[in-house]
Amino acid sequence: MPPKPKKKQVEDEEPRMLNGVFMFPNGDKYDGDYMRNPDGAIFRHGTGSHIASDGTRYVGSWENDAMTGVGRVDYPSGASYEGQFLENKFHGLGKYFWPDGAVYSGSFNENKISGDGEFLDPDGQAWVGNFDNKMALGLKFKLGL
After folding, report:
1. pLDDT band at 6 (very low <50, low <70, confident <90, very high)
2. 8 HSE (CA, 13 A, CB side)
3. pTM of the full predicted structure?
4. 76 and which of 18, 46, 55, 90 could share a cystine (Cβ 3.0–4.6 Å)?
């Protein structure tokens, strides 16, 4: 009787966590964790940095190829945001820094300032209260005594 042929080992069906550097056709660069599906598709997942061809840089958490979790994005204009992201949007608690030195610290909802927060203007004056995108009725001036 001939020997039985050995069974070929089947690859895991679950995506595998890997780490590396990718250059995109548009000049963007990603350096960090990623996963590969059994079909060969690659997606950012874990922690990594993405530098866009225009100079925008994101460093932080990725989930299913989207900025999700905690991270920081720096723009060529000098503006930046650090805090929570959900599916590529500012979402949750965070701080937005304008190039002129103004800072908003508080809640964001789908890229919009929304909820309780504090705005510090370029002159160092602070305003606190409830923000709704571009409106902030009833803000209180915070005295720095």
Report:
1. low
2. 2
3. 0.84
4. 55
The stretch 110-129 carries a mean pLDDT of 93
Chain-centroid distance of CA 10 in Å reads 35
- Which pLDDT belongs to residue 141? 79
Residue 144 has pLDDT above 60, yes or no: yes
Radius of gyration of the chain (CA): 22
Backbone phi, psi, residue 3, to 5°? -65, 150
Please state, in angstroms and as integers, the Cα–Cα distance from residue 61 to each residue in 32, 104, 124, 142, following that order.
10, 22, 32, 34
Label residue 7 by pLDDT band (50, 70, 90). Answer: very low
- Number of residues written out for the chain: 145
Strand-pairing partners, residue 116, are: 130
Closest of 55, 57, 86 to residue 70, by C-alpha: 86
Report which secondary-structure segment, H or E, holds 127.
strand 126-132
Chain-centre distance of CA 25, in angstroms?
21
For residues 47 and 34, the answer to whether their CB atoms sit within 8 Å is: no
Q: What is the dihedral of CA 74, 78, 83, 86, to 10 degrees?
A: -60
